[in-house]
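Structure (tokenized):
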């Protein structure tokens, strides 16, 4: 039986988030430079987008560069930024043709000017696309995102637009960069590390977390479908007991 036929088409996650990890280790194990791992990782991104279109996944959020990644060697940072510009310029036509919208989270103004410009152009060009939204997390820190939302909430209070008692989870979530994006049902982190590394701390509250040993450049269609199969075997209880979930599903 093919892998894809094992999937329950009625239970495909709407939003899948990825911590794309292991590019460096993958390259090292092949005696190659880390950047070779990053460029091979772009091929995985392309395959995941394609498969997501096929399966009907509506949102993908991909952690591509954390605020902590500025601590890496300068040549690696430069290589990553160049790769980003190259990937966008190579892929924007195809993305647009396939009805994919590009969004970003993180402080993209802090990226080199050419990265910022090419991201803005690609976002503008694809802004009306509706099949799939690809959210790239770039220069992203979840703690910073939460702090910024807190500062905005404080401003609303100073301007008497809301009182402190009126601040709800919904209002707070609307001040995050992910406003208008549903929380992910599934987070996949490749390469064996079992940590969140400052990614989507608010949004992942009830997300199913899936950690796989596969390095990101090897994470292709089969691994992705296999991960969704594993997700579909989980029971999402949201604080309830199993019997309640079974009753609502019947
Ligand atoms: C993930 O792969 C890509 C980025 C963080 C930009 P890594 O570069 O972290 O690869 P490892 O973890 O060193 O193997
Ligand atoms: C997380 O990977 C960030 C991205 C995938 C962009 P890292 O490789 O930077 O994470 P740590 O430092 O091992 O937690
Ligand atoms: Mg890593």
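Design, position by position:
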């Amino acid at each position: 039986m093919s892998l894809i036929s094992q999937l329950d088409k009625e239970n495909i996650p709407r939003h899948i988030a990825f911590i794309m990890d292991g590019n460096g280790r993958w390259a090292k194990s092949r005696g190659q430079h880390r950047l070779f791992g990053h460029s091979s990782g772009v091929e995985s991104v392309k395959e995941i987008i394609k498969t997501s279109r096929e399966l009907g996944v509506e949102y993908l959020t991909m952690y591509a560069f954390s605020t902590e990644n500025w601590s890496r060697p300068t040549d690696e940072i430069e290589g990553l930024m160049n790769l980003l510009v190259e990937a966008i310029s190579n892929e924007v036509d195809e993305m647009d043709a396939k009805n994919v919208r590009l969004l970003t989270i993180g402080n993209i103004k802090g990226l080199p000017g050419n990265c910022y410009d090419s991201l803005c152009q690609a976002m503008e060009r694809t802004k009306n696309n509706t099949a799939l939204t690809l959210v790239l997390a770039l220069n992203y820190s979840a703690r910073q995102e939460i702090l910024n939302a807190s500062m905005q909430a404080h401003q609303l209070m100073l301007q008497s637009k809301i009182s402190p008692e009126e601040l709800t989870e919904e209002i707070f979530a609307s001040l995050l960069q992910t406003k208008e994006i549903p929380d992910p049902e599934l987070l996949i982190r490749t390469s064996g590390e079992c940590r969140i590394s400052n990614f989507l701390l608010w949004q992942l509250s009830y997300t199913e977390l899936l950690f796989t040993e596969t390095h990101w450049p090897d994470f292709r269609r089969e691994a992705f479908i296999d991960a969704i199969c594993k997700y579909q075997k989980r029971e999402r209880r949201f604080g309830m007991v199993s019997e309640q979930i079974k009753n609502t599903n019947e």
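Reviewer-requested clarification: The mean pLDDT is 97. DSSP finds eight helices and six strands in the chain.
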